[in-house]
Amino acid sequence: MLDYSRSDWKSRADALTFRGQAFIDGKFVDAQSGKTFDSINPATGEILTAVAEGDAADIDLAVAAGRRAFEDGRWSRMAPGDRKAVLLRLAELIRANLEEMALLDSLDMGKLVTDAATIDAPGSAHFFQWYAEAIDKVYDEVAPTGPGDLALVSRVPLGVVGAVTPWNFPLDMATWKAAAALAAGNSVVLKPAEQSPLSALRLAELAAEAGVPDGVFNVVPGHGATAGRALGLHMDVDCLAFTGSTAIGKMFMQYSGQSNLKQVWPETGGKSPNLVFADCEDLDAAADMAAFGIFFNQGEVCSANSRLYVERSIKDAFVEKMVARATATQPGDPLDPASKMGAIVDEKQTQGIMGFIEAGKQTSNLVAGGERVSVDGKGCFVQPTIFDDVRHDDPLARDEIFGPVLSIIPFDSEEEAVTMANDSIYGLAASVWTDNLSRACRVSERLHVGTVSVNTVDALSAQTPFGGMKQSGFGRDLSLHSLEKYTALKTTWIKYKS
């Protein structure tokens, strides 16, 4: 696969069959309304397929199917070892269909197929396997009581979990929600982003092939204002996990209060700071990772390191390194292994990014990129863009752009760097570059974020929780802690004759 050429990937893409119907109660079905919307390849503007436009009626069917499956115990009361075996089979099926899953995400939202094939799809298989292995290794508790009393504390599945996922990592984000929720014994109703629903629909088909019972994993594509809202307001959804913008996360919190007080776990926006101190010995490594932290996946990453704070004594030299890396990271055909960056997800997002760039040209020093480009005369592509000497109160440094736009801001002291890094409504992630261990620990302790990566960027694994603070939300994906949000603590107190 790693030796595939552009023509190899294109021929495989041409041979794909797309699933566009909703997946409810174990089968593919049209939307109740009969409506569809087009899935469009942002790299070419071509229509991939028509997708069922689910709305409240389809969400009702999916939730009802999930509730039936949960109540009759076909999954929720399945023996842990049996549930584990099913999810392990699903992980292997993802690996067996790796090329297809990678192509679906690349075609649907513009990411590099090589990234999807080496990071996203294998990662999804790994996360399903990891949570499958955890199923029979998480124990309940016996509380300390006096003679004649036995108090059992159990973690029990909640019931029907709604999941609303974003378009930037379609398969990964569906997996982050579904793997943990299913491992805990819940039924799931997934509403993927309308810009990128294809891999989620194929995942549902693979889940059924692996042995996930009918009704346990349902996928309803549709728009946020209809299908997403219906899921958020549904009176029979017990929990809703969301990744997306802060504004929409707040709406789901409101939906909970307007309906049944369902648990809502939001992972929302980010504007992650990257602090580079002069005592960092390997500035080339810092520059390499700083470029990766903002240009990977076209900058369409919630935890993208979009604010780069550089100590003033090394700032000019570091800017030169960043400009060189931006120049070498130009967008190209996502199906070409030689391409360094893919397409922006759609025209709306492209125009939004360009709006920030045009405004930034009036307030800051543009040192790299700054233009929309085409590939073979088509597509939604934006050059890697760097602004230097950005004011800390400029929208470039304050707002989540969600594109390949980096703001560089100098600092003169550790205190100033930490203060500026924390001066944000977001608190998802941060990076620190220093070879002073005391500084690394001291600065990490003071940064108000969910993850601090020291001498790297955006560190994550199945073993560690991912999520933020402040208006980046309080939901946590990954790690065993993720199981907590899809379960409830239940006490069973037994009195007996001692």
Reconstruct the topology from this structure.
Blueprint: H1 6-14, E1 22-24, E2 27-29, E3 36-40, E4 47-52, H2 56-72, H3 80-96, H4 98-109, H5 113-134, E5 141-143, E6 149-157, E7 160-164, H6 170-183, E8 187-191, H7 198-210, E9 217-219, H8 224-233, E10 239-243, H9 246-258, E11 263-267, E12 273-276, H10 283-295, E13 307-311, H11 312-327, H12 347-363, E14 365-368, E15 372-375, E16 378-382, E17 385-388, H13 395-398, E18 405-411, H14 414-422, E19 426-427, E20 429-433, H15 437-446, E21 451-454, E22 469-470, H16 481-485, E23 487-495
Parallel strand pairs: 7-8, 7-10, 8-9, 10-11, 12-13, 12-20, 13-18, 17-18, 20-21
Antiparallel strand pairs: 1-2, 3-4, 5-6, 6-23, 14-17, 15-16, 19-22
Keywords:
498 residues; alpha/beta; Aldehyde Dehydrogenase, Chain A, domain 1; Aldehyde Dehydrogenase, Chain A, domain 2; 2 domains; seven-stranded mixed sheet; five-stranded parallel sheet; 23 strands
Annotated CATH homologous superfamily of the largest domain: Aldehyde Dehydrogenase, Chain A, domain 1
User: Structural class, judged by helices and strands?
Assistant: alpha/beta
Characterize the biggest β-sheet: 7 strands, mixed
* Share of helix, binned: 40-55%
The top-level CATH class of the largest domain is Alpha Beta
Number of strands: 23
Low-confidence stretches: none
Strand neighbour order, sheet with most strands = 14-17-18-13-12-20-21
Any guess at the CATH architecture of the largest domain? Answer: 3-Layer(aba) Sandwich
Number of domains: 2
Shape descriptor:
globular
Percent strand equals: 15-25%
Radius of gyration: 23 Å
CATH topology annotation of the largest domain:
Aldehyde Dehydrogenase, Chain A, domain 1
Mean pLDDT rating: 97
In DSSP terms (H or I, runs of 4 or more residues), the helix count works out at: 16
